[in-house]
Amino acid sequence: MNAKDEELRRLEALISQYNQHQALRGELVFGAINDDGRLDVATPFFEDADYEALKASGLRDALIGLLDDMMVERSAHGAEQAHDGILRLGSGKVVLEWLPEGASRDAADARRDDWDLIPWLIERLGLVQYEAIEWKKAQAAEKHEGDTSQWKREIWLSPDKNRAIKTALAEEGQRLGFQVLPAGSRGEWLYDLVWRRLDANRNLVGMPLAVEIEMSDNRLWGIRYDFNKLLQAQADHKLMVFQVQTQEEVEAVFERLKESIDVYPHGSPCRYLLCGWSTQQNAFHFEERIAQPTPAQN
User: Fold this and answer.
1) CA dihedral 82, 27, 191, 235 (to 10 degrees)
2) How far apart are CA 29 and CA 88, in angstroms?
3) How far apart are CA 221 and CA 38, in angstroms?
4) How far is CA 159 from CA 106, 194, 216, 245, in A?
5) Is the sign of the CA dihedral 284, 288, 293, 298 positive or negative?
């Protein structure tokens, strides 16, 4: 949730008093831990020199004090989001985004260099699988007077798979304070789904997650066509979801995609999660892969 105009005016008035603010660029993730709802934790994500300037000028403490006041005011007015947020600085501009209750700790973790999103992705896709099977059982029960024994005959259509996966990923990305694309009526932005990290002037400064989903074409060349787009993505985490019939076919695709990962000359470290849906088993299978930068050759 973006800040109110009045909140932004107060922040802009504050930072305008400090000469250093034009050169500062980064994020301050803040939140309440205790029941009183006051600002307890503020985690900075700035270059070292910028953060030292932020502290030395007194602007950091002034910002924390104002954000604390705003949290108290929002709580007093019963605002839905009042205790967690992200303050962004960049190019002399300031942006304040309020986050869902309790999200600031996860949002801070998501901005650390050693963050590993893969366990969450596996857990969340496992929940998508569970919800799909429950839906199939409900459909079978409706058709067969409460008998769910034929649930495997129910078809989980590819568009429904896409929608369920994208919805789960979009909700989490927004909760962590990332820009999620596509959004609303906007079309795809290079990939089927992406989390983007922007500064206060809407400069793209990071891509925590890029996703490709190929559920309509179970041929290897069709899966690889989409996967090759992921190889080129400058993303910290890359998720590829595809669909084939058997577990053996899933594993065969895994082997081919892992070869592609190993051969591609990566410019920065990243984590891959390969996720194959077996229509025969009604189950996702997973394979993780970490890619390291390719050493420069003389």
Assistant:
1) -130
2) 9
3) 54
4) 30, 18, 8, 17
5) negative
Q: Bridge-partner residues for 43, per DSSP?
A: 29
In terms of domains, do 92 and 133 share one?
Answer: no
Task: Name the nearest CA neighbour of 260 among 212, 215, 296, 297.
Answer: 212
- Please give the tally of structural domains in the chain: 2
| pLDDT single digits (tens) 77-94 | 999 899 999 999 988 899
**Do residues 137 and 232 both lie within one domain?**
yes
Q: Are 26 and 50 in contact (CB under 8 A)?
A: yes
Among 202, 169, 198, CA closest to 183: 169
Containing 89, the helix (H) or strand (E) segment is: strand 84-90
> Which of 71, 105, 139 finishes a domain?
105
Distance of alpha carbon 92 from alpha carbon 15, whole angstroms: 9
Q: How far apart are CA 188 and CA 229, in angstroms?
A: 13
What are φ and ψ of residue 181, in 5° steps? -130, 145
Q: Enter the pTM of the model.
A: 0.92
pLDDT exceeds cutoff 70 at 208 = yes
Q: What per-residue confidence (pLDDT) applies to 95?
A: 94
- Phi, then psi, of 118 in degrees rounded to 5: -60, -45
How many Cβ atoms are within 10 Å of 236's Cβ, its own excluded? 21
10 Å CB burial of residue 258 (0-12, 13-18, 19+) is middle
